[in-house]
Fold this sequence. Notes:
The structure holds two protein chains of two kinds. Chain A is an all-alpha fold. Chain A contains 15 helices and two strands. The N and C termini of chain A lie far apart (43 Å). Mean pLDDT of chain A is 86; it is low at 1-8 and 328-334. Chain B is an alpha/beta fold. In chain B, the strands form five sheets. A six-stranded mixed sheet of chain B has the order 6-7-8-3-9-10, sandwiched between helices. In chain B, strand 7, helix 6 and strand 8 form a beta-alpha-beta unit. The radius of gyration of chain B is 26 Å and the shape is globular.
Amino acid sequence: MDTPLLISPETPARRRLRLTNLAERFGLVVVWLVMIAVFGIALPGIFLTWTNFSIMFATQTPGAILALALIIPLTAGDYDLSVGATLTLSAVMIGVLNAVMGLPVGVAVLAALAGGVVVGLVNAFFIIYIRIPSLVVTLGTTSVITGLVQWMTNSSTIGGISPTLIDVVIRGRLFGISYAFYYVMLIALLIWLVFEFTPLGRRILFVGRGREVARLSGIDVSRVRVGCLVASAVLASVGGVVYAGLLGAADPFSGLNFLLPAFAAAYLGATAIIPGRFNPWGAVISVYFLSTGITGLTMLGIPLWVTSVFNGLALILAVTVSQFVRGREETDIG
Amino acid sequence: MTKATAVPALQVTGIAKTFGGARALKGITFDVAAGEVHGLLGQNGCGKSTFVKVLAGFHAPDPGGAIAVFGRDLPLPMPPGAFRDFQMAFVHQHLGLVSSLTVLENMRVASITGPGLRVDWRAERRAALATFDRFGIALDLDARTGTLSQTDQALLAIMRASEDLRSADAGSGSRGLLILDEPTPFLPKEGVDRLFELVRQVAGHGDSVIFISHDIDEVREITDRATILRDGLVSSTLVTRNASHDEFVEGIIGRRVARSVTVAATTEQRKIKARVTGVQEAGLNVPMLEVAEGEILGLTGLLGSGYERVPYLMFGATRAQGGTLDLDGQKFDLPAMTPKLAISHRMALLPSDRPRASGVQGLSVGDNMLLLEFDDFMGRFGLNLRGMAQRSRDLSTQYEVRPNNPDLRLGQLSGGNAQKVLLAKWMIREPGLLMLDEPTQGVDVGTRQQIFGVIRQAAQKGAAVICASSDAEQLADLCTRVLIFSRGRIVTELAGHHISKDSIAEACYGHSTLDIA
């Protein structure tokens, strides 16, 4: 059968449309490259170095994993604010089980991931079966987990985590970049494959955009939402494992700092690569875009408080832009 | 009453309204006397709601007409909210109450939101109680409004409106015009009686009331006179006391009716596809309903008669309290029915709420069309995106979706094309039982015929079709049998050559609360 609209000759109007499309998809990448160039000129010899970038690629991995964790429930229409706390819980569990109690690091990692499953199920229970807004539930579990973490650690950092973990996360390198970065790529690839190339991914999208439509089309909406919340908590725990390996220690406080940039990256990422949808490549690029900005600004000697302002503005700006990209369709999240 | 000499409460002269090319009102003239309860009736699309919206200032009428309230000419178009200055108050079907606030807060919302920094709750409470006393109605001022019965909420809304009339006009004789826009369809019989009692009191205090309704018997019970609209014109104004039920029906439908020809038995012997028994919901009572293979069964009735709920109950879209569904000889408990189960047994439901329940506006045409088919495109290396694009393009061609570009978002298509996409979504499953709710709402005439063609073809191939609609013309075009509901029950069955637009409308208006109660 003929498909006239798709194989019609390239008209100027169509070419313009295709260019706009490309600009939309890769605009963020271009802005990122421009930003790198500007900092490179402003900070000659320091900024554009392999060391600088390999450090950035490695240290941002927990934040990148959090951003990837977030986009899963966001696509299904739920917030998960507790990913930051879950990351901390996971890191601290490894610290306590491995460094303090002396269990093998593999066992500690499995326990930390199991902890993620539990957090996800608790969130899902209150959000889906008690029908409390996800924002409220995960704000609550954040506080609960943070408290538990302080109790577990006596509010102090636990050092002495097995060097094996440090080896597989940060010390091991491929092409000069720590393994941790490749883990992020692997997770992003996995999410991308599920989102784009499986029926499940499409169903998650329908659940997030039109719950009633999904329900009346025979999709088990509750199960999809539970699955997404558990997936985000487990991924956040993976982030915790990476964080513990990165520091060689378990810090009961700093994990929450990743939350806001991760949110900003998730929303900013929804304006790129696949505009109008939360997508893993957009999210990862956004994480590194934001950290490039902060690294550059820090090197220029800008005071520390600017970091918070920068991240906050980026979040609001990202949401604003995504409102304009492809209309106002990104708002049905609750 | 002194109707002849007094200035009329409302004088409408030559009001017309054109939407695009369509004339919803073609110049209507009627009056409402002071102290009168005046009915306003007509079928869907006759122009009633357009007129109310002109009166309230939502629509600007075409130039040339005039409306006077108590002798004062309204500025047309009415500025929004200006109706208050002309001693008018509206109670719409949705009542405009905030269900999470208390009775007192709802009752006195005008004075709470008005000027002044401080609310004197003690004075507000006194004022509300004084109003309740005047009408002899007792409601708990501190109850949350949502916990009141439908009836009490309606009474509250009417009392509040009546109070607005009083406060809007301290000086000039304290008379007003209260417009009740279909307040009764969802009330039980006893609630309607209480509402009428209140309406009589309002009129007794010197206010005039316009009572808009579908229900002839209600209009005959409460009104002094009634104006009937048909196709944007006044078809008649009746003095209620002197008019028979048939005169009302004639005014609404536009022809003399013979009341006994309607019921016809199904003569054709076809294999029964689905049988529903024992449906007992609040406001819906269907002991038995059958649909045969190859049959297109219409469900209809007036607003509030409950007919449109049947497909959703059968599909498990809303959970039933009880009842069973017998589909191809297999029995299902309706309370345990789910859309998933229904789909796996080749049932399909196209809901009327297109943007919320039927399709996702923000996702692509292709994804919306293939939502039920994703698993079929799953290969060893993931979804076959190329195959999906090809399939949705083919389907768009087959169902004449324009433009044929599955990458567009559903929301970028016109209503008619979006509906074709969503119909295609269900039709590719080749449903054995196809259920549709208002399938051609907001759809242009050409598309309507295409959609009918698809439905007829499905029936010819042996599907049983159930089509719920308020559109008598559509049902007459499409259906082989029509069930008419009233107050939650099936009251008339039309089949074969007995089905016509008029016979359906007539059956809708022919039955009433009084007949059934």
